[in-house]
Model the fold of this input.
Amino acid sequence: MRTTLDLPDETFRRLKAQAALRGMKLKELVAQFIERGLAAGTNAPASLSERPPLPVAIPRDPDAPLTPALTNAQLAAILDAEDLEQYRRVIDHSGAQHHD
Done:
């Protein structure tokens, strides 16, 4: 059956490249992807943005002291304090320039 799809330009370019790399026609690759999606069932996420993020290992110096876990509220308070201090430095520096 013939149909029309509106795809983002980047998605279309990626599909065309994949089809060329696999030696397939674009319509064959699209049909294959659709079949795989249908075979996966309805439990599959509708989009990549709905998938849970994968855990990421963060390298750590084993000799460095551990930093205590902070709540979001504690982190926000620290960032707010840093922003306020930076703002005060800018204001103080700006005021010093006008007095010269």
About this structure: The first helix runs from residue 9 to 22.
